[in-house]
Amino acid sequence: MIRTTRDPNQEAATLRDYQDELTRVLGPLIGGTQLTAALGFKTQEAFRKAIQRGSVPVKTFVISGRRGRFAATADLAAWLWAQRQRP
User: What is the reported pTM?
Assistant: First the structure.
C-alpha cells in the first residue's frame, strides 16, 4: 500500500534509524576519503577548497594530534537524509 501523506513521526523514526545504521557501520566520526566521497566531492582537493570557501554542507572539525577534518556521522546522516527528501 502506498501512502500519499507523510507521518512526521514515521519520518523522524526513519531518520533516526538511518543515523543509527550509519553510525554502526562507520563509527561516530567520519573523515578522510570516506567523508570526501560521502559529501559527493570527487577529490580531496575539491573537499579542501570547499572547506576554504566555507561551502561544506556539514560541520567539520579538527582533532588535536590527528590529520585532516572530521564530521559527526549523525550530522552527515542528517544532511544525506535531507538531500534525499528534496524534490
Answer: 0.80
